[in-house]
Amino acid sequence: MVQQTIHRLDSESVGKAFVRYLVPSTIGMLLMAINIVADGIMVGNRLGPVALGGVGIAAPVYTLFVAMSLWIGIGGATRFSALMGAKRIKEAHIVFSHAMASIFAVTLLIGLVVFPFRTELAYLLGANTETYPYVSDYLYLMLLFGFVFTMENALSIMVRNDGSPNLAMVSLVTTSLLNIGLNYVFLFVLDFGVKGAAAATLLAAFVGMLVLCTHFFKKDNQLRFVRFKPNRKLLLLILVIGFPSFLAEVGMSVFTISHNNVFERLAGTEGVAAFAILNYVHSVMLLAFLGMGSAIQPLVSYYSGAKDQAKIKKTLQLAIGTAVTAGVLFFIFGQFFAGVIVSVFGDFPDAVMELATSGIQLFFIAYLFMGANFVMMTYYQSTGEIRMATWITAAREIVVLLILLSILPVLFGVTGAWLAIPLSELIVLLTIVYYQIKQKKKRQFTADMTAPYK
Fold first, then answer.
1. What share of the chain is helix, strand, coil (3-state, %, to 5)?
2. Signal peptide span per the entry (predicted)?
3. Across the 454 residues of the chain, what is the mean pLDDT of every consecutive 10-residue run?
């Protein structure tokens, strides 16, 4: 059965394999995004703009847990797929076991250590006297039980890399629909407030993990828990490979915290509420691009292990074309339907509505460049060019972003704050183009130097 799985990836056309991974991955991520937006809609309509802002302020904690699961999960899965491509099956089993054990231990420890300091953490994240009660309620459950969705997220990545993208999608669909249902019950029926929203997220993730566990009963399953000795060298390799994914999620936290603080300073609670609406919408687009990256990661990792450069190049071309097309469509949608998007989240004061509407129209410029950046980051990560992958993630939402956020709002006010991410994405894309041109010239020079003299 091992040979069947390997044979399919070796013999299947790149286009067919890309679609086979792209469709369930993107559908799953979009449903997950709809789930996040549904959270925002329910919280906004049931508890109001201040509660919505409070949940938005606490969101970086959720993001941090996801970051940990991606750090070890993507790192482990990339190594797992490369070993499968190289036909080193037993080593792949050890990588899987090592990665899952590490995720559980690390995320449980983080939650327990930080929990006693949740009040200080709330204010550090940007809470004020109005939003603090909501931030505190959300953090309470997330810190105690955050390890649940880190395990679920990491297992989903592993299942997808083991040739079951459809099961990973089914798990995401189950998680999303259950979360929406539980949110309605906890918020509108039982009136549990923000704690109810957090509980719904955690319970839904637990059920999603149970769905993923059915993969272990498949005959062609290669995700085997085996006995292993802690291996520092292997763990370091997993961490190095997965670091760009971790940094991308940390970047989301930096993005959220920095924007919350800028908007709180420029426009008060109304500004924070407007940004919270944008952030929910942004999550949809971001997860769509992440779905595209998730689709090529198993393929590029496997082809890299098999040393098949032609298939890697074809996969990259398909992914960039798909991402750029999606980005253009997202941009157009934002320009024409910004007001409609904002109104879905609740009947907010005119000031909030105007801020959020103009914000969406400006911010959506970023999607013209963001998809290509995501695909290239995944490509570099999956082929071992970790430095370039790290640069892309560090620059997009940390280094370049923070520089722009310190300059643009001073010059252009709120408009400058909205434009920080679009300009950051453009700058990063230009560095990628420069790097690719430089690498092409370098390869050509090497080929000329090593060519036989005529």
1. 90, 0, 10
2. none
3. 50 83 81 74 78 78 81 87 82 88 89 86 79 82 86 89 86 87 88 84 91 89 82 86 83 83 84 83 81 82 83 90 92 90 78 87 93 91 88 90 92 91 95 90 68 54
Contact call for residues 163 and 8 (beta carbons, < 8 A): yes
Q: Which two tokens stand for residue 393?
A: 């993630």
d(CA 303, CA 297): 10
Q: How much is the CA Rg of the chain, to the nearest whole Å?
A: 22
Task: Answer whether 146's CB lies under 8 Å from 65's CB.
Answer: yes
What is the rounded CA–CA span in Å between residue 87 and residue 418?
48
Contact criterion met (CB below 8 Å) for 69 and 149: yes
Indicate the domain borders of the chain: 2-438
Spatial distance between the Cα atoms of 228 and 94, rounded to a whole number of angstroms: 7
What backbone phi and psi angles, to 5 degrees, belong to 131? Answer: -90, -15
Torsion of CA 316, 319, 321, 327, to 10 degrees: -140
In order, the DSSP letters of 146-170 are: THHHHHHHHHHHHHHHTT-HHHHHH
What's this model's pTM, rounded to 2 decimal places? 0.77
First-to-last C-alpha distance (Å) of the chain: 51
Cα-Cα-Cα-Cα dihedral of 271, 277, 280, 282, to 10°?
A: -70
Give the type of residue at 433: V
183 neighbors 38 (Cβ within 8 angstroms) = yes
Selection from 51, 42, 32, 50 nearest residue 345 by Cα: 42
The Cα 410–Cα 408 span in angstroms is 5
Name residue 164's amino acid: S
Q: Among 222, 255, 250, 319, which residue's Cα sits nearest to residue 126?
A: 255
Residue 411: Cβ within 10 Å count: 8
